[in-house]
Structure formats: structure tokens, C-alpha cells
Amino acid sequence: MFSQLTISLILSSHFASALPSEVTRHNNPSCSSLTPGLAPLIATEYGMTVEIQATIGNQNFTLDIDTGSSDMWLLGPNSTCIGASDCNYGPTTFNTNTSSTFRHIPNETFGVFYGAGFATGILGYEEVGVAGITIPNQKIGVVSELSIPGDGRKNGILGLAYLLLTSAHPGDKYPNDLENLSYLQNRLPYNPLPFSMAAEHKSLSWFALGINRTPMNESVSLNAGYIGFGTLPPVSHSKNWAKAPVVIVPDLPPSFTNNQTNKRTFWAIEVQSTTIGTRSGSNLTTTPTTSTTLTNSTPFNAVVDNGNPFSFIPGALSEHYHSLWSPPAVKGFFSEDLTKWQVECDATPPVLGFEIGGITFYHDARDLIFPMNGTCVSSLFSSDDLSLAGVSVSFLGLQFLKNVLAVFDFGGNEMRIAARV
Q1: Gap between the Cα atoms of 185 and 188, Å rounded
Q2: pLDDT digits (tens, 9 = 90+) for 306-320
Q3: Residues with Cβ within 8 Å of residue 263, at least 6 apart in sequence
Q4: Does pLDDT of 399 surpass 90?
Q5: How far is the C-alpha of 123 from the C-alpha of 71, rounded, in Å?
């Protein structure tokens, strides 16, 4: 729901040769047909987004992966971009008339709302292949109208969150009422792709992301890491795993979840404490060796969302963090509602660590400075500035995920996280 909000507002590797016991506990020995899949990731927009290749029908596509939403959709031919002459997507579109396996679903509308805009069209069942796993009847959206900006490469989005966030709606002409957020209501939930893989016994009930840090001067990088469906990405990581249950996001309007307020939507977990402090010496990598830090033990819930290039934390923590930059960070505004912190591109960021499941995960300093238009900004923002329908939510975004190997377990409704080393 909130994925890609910040993009819109701001821009208008021990190797895993086997699965650790914490990860394999949902394996069912009777499922002899399990074929866990591994796929490489592509980074675009100078490392702001990560994408994956998929075969849908008889065509190949590039999809933006997003743990903050749940739908898989593709741009259809002759689609209309609202608010611009061209939304800047890749040239390949999905033509339902040339696919022998596509089956249109009547009396339903596809309509998804992100902070960055909306996409709407039809729904259908189609053969989808991702990471060597094929689902013959995956529900997908085919978009005819949208306002979400692309990157010149991708052809759609692959959402990886829970099914209550899927965006099928009743009727052929379900209204797109942006003022009343109609696309966040009256949902007809269905299985997102990872859930379909598990339901058809073609993967275990979890997926994992190992996202690499890519050079900030590369607009496109083919060495962006891996996604694994039922298998761990082959990236270097600690053997110590933190476990955190997926929590129910409080205060969401009941209409956003069809009044099922007791069920999970986002990949939200509790951050038990936050460690912030000055960083001394020349060490700028993941775990500070010499620093003066203070730990704030006030917990908060945060959505783990790779579709958000930045992280958002409660305002008081953000203010404290930004007071410790050297040279000092300068407070400003991207817009009337969104605070930014201007920093020197060669500044020394403070130490930043989030405790999850009893383990503190520190940020590499390179992930705390973000180049933009010849200057640099902090990659941490205040969640007090970010709201939708009156709901403020904290995020652990893409820059956090570059420092960890993250397992998203929808079978056990928990996340497992290990530090990259």
C-alpha cells in the first residue's frame, strides 16, 4: 500500500550451501515435488529498485519486486499514462490476445493504489514462471491506465506481501475514487505468487532476499543479489539468526482489510530498540568497532519493504540521529509535509542499529548517504511525516535490507534475519 511513496515524493556477501535449521522447519517430507527456486536480481535507478525476470504466457518480462505490496501486474498494450505523456516503462507489453494460456476473469476489476500513484485494468489467470518455478494459473493484473512512474526497463510489479493487500475488486467498472481511496477497499483477496507456489507444493512457505550493495554511479547493475523461493540466496551471512513474528499493523482502517483487522497484511515486525551514536575512527562498515552510542529501548513496529528506498523511524529517534552527523546535517524540506536532511557526500554518518529478535543489526555507513542531483541527503526519514488515511507507519527499507539476509516466512508468520558479513 505504501510502497514507492518516497520515490514519488523525492524524485517527481559464511556462504549458504545448506538451509539452517531455523529455515527448514516448515519443510514437509511428503512434498517430494518441491522445487525451490533461485533467481538473480537486477538493480536499477542507481540501486533504488531491484527487479527480476519472469516468463508470463509466452513472453519474458522484467518486474520490480516489492515486499510492501501483493499484486503481480503487467502493462498492457496501448495503456494510458495519467499525469505524463509517458510513464517510462520498458517496451514489452502483455497482449492477452496473443497468449493461448490467458483466461480473463469477468466481473472483476484490477485496481491498486500506491503512494506513488495507481494502476488499473483487468484480471486473469495466466501461466507464470519465476526462478524456475511455473504456476499454471496465477492471478495477475493487466494494466490499461496508470500514474506510477517506471524506470525505462520494467514492465510491471511483483508484489510479495500478504493476500489481504491484493487488489481485485467486484464488477467490471469498479470506481477509481482517489479521494476516498476506493482501491484500498472492497477487495477480493487471492494468493500472491509465493503463496501460490507453496499451495501447489512447488516451493516451501517462505522466500528470502539477499540484496547486494551496488555502486551508486551505476544506473543498472546485474550483480544486485538474489531472491530465493524456499531456498537461501548464496550470499555471505552470519550463522546467528534473529526471529521476529510478523505483527498486525494497528490502526489500519477496517475497510482496507475487508474488516479482517485480526489478520496480517504487511511484513511488519517489532524493532525492540535503536542504537544511535557518534562514529569514531575510519571504520564505516557494518559493525562499528569504536563508537560512543546510546540505546533507546522504546520499541516500534516497522514494515520491511524493499520497495521503499529509504527507512522511516519515529520522529524523536530521527531527530536524535540527525543531530550527530559530522559535518552537521542540515534540516530542510522536500515538500510541505516531508522533512529531509541535507548532508555532505563525504560526511561521517552516526552509528545506526536496530535490535530485532534480540540481535542488533547495524548499517554500513555507505547506505546512510544518498546522492541526489549533485548533492547528498540522509537515507533516514521521520515516519511522523508519512501517513495515509491518518495512519503513520515506520519502514525498514532497501538500505536496511542491503545489510542483512532476510527470510519472509508466511507459513510460520515470522521473519528470520542474519547480518551480511
Answers
A1: 9
A2: 999 999 999 999 999
A3: 162, 164, 248, 257
A4: yes
A5: 11
Query: What gap in Å lies between CA 235 and CA 399, rounded to an integer?
Result: 17
Q: Do residues 67 and 397 touch, judged by C-beta distance below 8 A?
A: no
Question: Terminal CA-to-CA distance of the chain, rounded, Å?
Answer: 32
- Mean of the per-residue pLDDT values for the chain? 88
pLDDT of 83: 87
Distance from chain centroid for Cα 179 = 25
Under the banding of pLDDT at 50, 70 and 90, the label for residue 289 is low
Rounded Cα–Cα distance for residues 40 and 44 (Å): 13
Q: What is the DSSP string of 273-310?
A: EEEEEEE-SS--SSS-SSEEEEEE---EEEEE-TTSSS
∠ at Cα 93 (87, 99), nearest 5°? 155
Q: Which has the higher per-residue pLDDT, 372 or 5?
A: 372
Residue 178 DSSP label: T
Query: 414 CB contacts (<8 Å, ≥6 apart)?
Result: 243, 244, 245, 246
Of 109-123, 132-146, 385-399, the range with the lowest mean pLDDT is: 385-399
What number is the average pLDDT over the span 115-121?
Answer: 90
Q: In terms of DSSP bridges, do strands 273-279 and 351-356 run parallel, antiparallel, or are they unpaired?
A: antiparallel
> What predicted TM-score, i.e. pTM, was given to this entire model?
0.91
Euclidean distance between CA atoms 236 and 161, whole angstroms: 25
- Would strands 49-56 and 117-130 be described as parallel, antiparallel, or unpaired? antiparallel
Phi-psi domain of 293 (left: phi exceeds 0; alpha: psi -120 through 50; beta: other): beta
